[in-house]
Amino acid sequence: MQVRYVRSLSSGFRSRSATKSATSKPQPSSSSSSTSLCLSELDEDFMLSSLKLKQLSDSGDSADGVFKHISSIFHAGKSAKKPGSGEIDGAKEFERVQNLSWLSSISQNNILLQRKEQSHKKKQKFVFEVSQEIRFQKLVEVSAKMLGPETTLDLFGKLGRKPVSKGYNALVEMCIDKARGTDDEGIAVELGKVFNLFKSMRKQGLELEDQTYRPLLLYIIDMRMVEEFQFFYVIIKEENPSSVARLGYYEMLLWLRVNNEEKIQSICNYIAENDSEDMSVIRENVLLALCESERTEEILKLLEIIDIKDLSSVESVAMVFQALGRLLLEPVAEKFLFHLKNSDHEANNITNFIACYVVSIPNLLVEDVKKKFKDLHHRLEVSPSSSSYEKIILHSCALHKVNVALDIVNEMCEAGLTLSTDVLHSMLQICDDTSEYNLYLCSNALISSVHMIWPLCLSSRS
């Protein structure tokens, strides 16, 4: 099943995008142009050539009714009143009044009270703005469910309140969720809606970020839609040239999904042979995509040319250790752990990497997971942290090994570490589900380390 796109929609978007790039965006450098060569060459003739988009039916009275309802929410006389918008700088205000002749008659308590009132007003304003944004987002979502994303944008445009990036993210996710439950023709309609949402974002001057296009690309990859992926790849890259490296992650996921061996090897060879400075980010994204697969050979090949301590985030490093555990690459995992330790990497991160590694090892008994966790800490001469202990606890709870989880909690308490409320609630739930509630009550260390434990226990049983 392949869904195709009409050329007329693409031409309008691409021409306006080109104008935007000429006026407001710098042209990508030659180096960035070269890095994009690792991605597939695209046939320009296929761009939006044959996707059949269905026009939305006239929403008529429904749209008018919703418009009136939304207007009443924004403009009703009894709507919440916003606190004063004027920003008050407490320090400057204090300096100003300090010079007034009557200041000497004001007690220090009154001055402190004034500053507290000013702080309270600022807090009120912040809470008001946050709550208004949350309500607006919910209103956008409800309207989109009733009328569809495009009609919703028109309505809020008339009100002068078009959504920001978060609103568009929600609308894109709605389209993708609907596409998953429909036929080929319905998929074409929903992808067309996403395309139009991207156009609206461009008109508002909003950039296409990963949070917006991620649900779309993951859906297209899951459905093995190669041409559709290539089309949206071009759109996203033209709107946000800095997204090329991240798009490399999604492209590798695509070729892994369709098992295109030629493309997989082509990308791996290209990034291995090119050692330019901006290639490091592309390498990292391709590595992360491979870490979600069973491609041991390709992962090891990239890890030979990538210094794990140079990855951009601890989340990326954690993904690598999860893959090493899943693929049973213990010698490689230990080598990288010692490398990070000798590089003076933060000890708290190292203990979390150990936890990510051991819980990812398949078919390993929980007791053996705990043992390997402790052995690696002993060999590396680092102490477990609360967060790494909690990963082992949650892993034990997921396998309904409450007794092991309780043993770990006791160790935490003996080490003077605290247990987070979320993990505590997870343990309560598992104890209840497995009818091992007494194990929880019998753990004296746990009871003594967590305040209000008994009311929580009673609550979980009710």
Please tell me what the overall shape is: globular
Helix content: 55-70%
What is the tally of helical segments? 24
Question: What is the CA-atom radius of gyration, in angstroms?
Answer: 28 Å
Task: Count every beta strand, where a strand is a DSSP E run of 2 or more residues.
Answer: 0
Name the average pLDDT: 76
Largest sheet: none
Tell me the distance between the termini: 50 Å
Structural class label: mainly alpha
Strand content: under 5%
Low-confidence stretches: 1-12, 14-59, 76-85, 451-462
H/E element order:
HHHHHHHHHHHHHHHHHHHHHHHH
Please provide a written account of the structure.
Residues 8-19 have a biased composition (Polar residues). InterPro entries: TPR-like_helical_dom_sf. Residues 1-36 are annotated as: Disordered. Residues 20-36 have a biased composition (Low complexity). This protein is mostly helical and 462 residues long. Among the domains are: 1-23 and 31-51 and 134-269, no CATH class; 385-462, no CATH class. 70% of the residues lie in helices and 0% in strands. The protein has helices spanning 7-24, 30-35, 60-75, 90-98, 108-147, 149-158, 165-180, 184-204, 210-222, 226-239, 244-257, 261-273, 279-290, 296-303, 314-326, 330-342, 347-359, 366-380, 386-398, 402-414, 421-433, 437-441, 444-449, 453-461. Helix 21 (421-433) crosses helix 24. It is globular and about 65 Å long.
Secondary structure elements and pairings:
Layout: H1 7-24, H2 30-35, H3 60-75, H4 90-98, H5 108-147, H6 149-158, H7 165-180, H8 184-204, H9 210-222, H10 226-239, H11 244-257, H12 261-273, H13 279-290, H14 296-303, H15 314-326, H16 330-342, H17 347-359, H18 366-380, H19 386-398, H20 402-414, H21 421-433, H22 437-441, H23 444-449, H24 453-461
Helix pairs in contact: 3-6, 5-6, 5-7, 7-8, 7-9, 9-10, 9-11, 10-11, 11-13, 12-13, 15-17, 16-17, 17-18, 17-19, 19-20, 19-21, 21-24
